[in-house]
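Ticket 4471: requesting a sanity check on a complex prediction with flavin-adenine dinucleotide. Repro inputs:
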Amino acid sequence: MAEVLVYVDHVDGAVRKPTLELLTLARRIGEPVAVHLGAGADTAAATLAEYGAVKVLAADAPEFADYLVVPKVDALEAAYKAVSPAAVLVPSSAEGKEIAARLAVRIGSGIITDAVDLEAGDEGPVATQSVFAASYSTKSRVTKGTPVITVKPNSAAPEAAPAAGTVEQLAVAFGEQATGTKVVSRTPRESTGRPELTEAAIVVSGGRGVNGAENFPLIESLADSLGAAVGASRAAVDAGWYPHTNQVGQTGKSVSPQLYIAAGISGAIQHRAGMQTSKTIVAINKDAEAPIFELVDYGVVGDLFQVVPQLTEEITSRKG
Ligand SMILES: Cc1cc2nc3c(=O)[nH]c(=O)nc-3n(C[C@H](O)[C@H](O)[C@H](O)COP(=O)(O)OP(=O)(O)OC[C@H]3O[C@@H](n4cnc5c(N)ncnc54)[C@H](O)[C@@H]3O)c2cc1C
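Returned structure tokens:
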């Protein structure tokens, strides 16, 4: 069976969920071979094997942490040459897309970004993308070279399928450009204890209806009762009620969780663009005519200051 390279997103060997989703999707088109760069390959290998990696190609070098992107492209290209895979899958993060695009240029291949599903096809893997603010789904196939495909987080439920996961060292020769952009400092982001917005299985977002920074703890409490990430509309972040890093939409982050709850958000096209592929959408809005109700699975017409605390209380009591 053809091998499929899966680029591993991890923190010191702790594999992040989008990679497990990629391994699950990779198994539909071939045998997953994971590419692990940086420290922690031995730790990661157990998880990667559990989710179907037949092999883990590992390389560790200071360049991966000390310089931006290019050393990782050098390594992924080395893995590509070693394996001659049927496809290369990379998580759709900002960095992932840059790595994938650079690899595609180097190996003369077509690329598909932000896939939300992947299936085997007679002439190569077929990727589904959600386009035009998620108002259309398209299916495409790379027609030139080895398909390089980036896949959005939450596109598949990770399924375990134990495989060997044998760790093999990958020899990487860094090119001249590898040391072109040096990382000069790192400041860890203050942890909220909540999941990363773009990867979270549940997102609770607040909009202008939240009516002030002082009311955002209502949204945070509901999010915490569900183990969710917190998002916000542009109106809310522009008003300074919540950080810009939490903005969902066309000019913010794109999320695709299992459950998206929008409170006090009207559903403007630019907001939809960042959340419309969510599996289940719930809106709480006091205006029954709000456009958000056109796309929801469940809608609550009501005042969020009444509805959200009751919802939080009910969820918390059911958990207890
Ligand atoms: C180029 C461009 C890019 C943009 N990018 C983005 C983007 O990335 N993300 C984004 O979100 N927007 C973006 N926008 C802005 C977008 O057009 C909307 O203005 C914005 O999404 C509106 O935010 P909102 O829904 O919170 O506010 P509003 O549209 O004002 O809606 C507030 C809603 O809250 C409801 N409400 C009020 N009080 C309550 C209450 N007590 N209980 C329940 N409901 C209540 C109201 O009925 C209303 O429906 C962009 C715009 C442009 C032009």
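Notes from triage: Residues 207-209, 233-236, 247-252, 264-266, 268, 270-271, 274, 284-287, 290, 303-305 surround flavin-adenine dinucleotide (CB under 6 Å). Leaving this open until the requester confirms.
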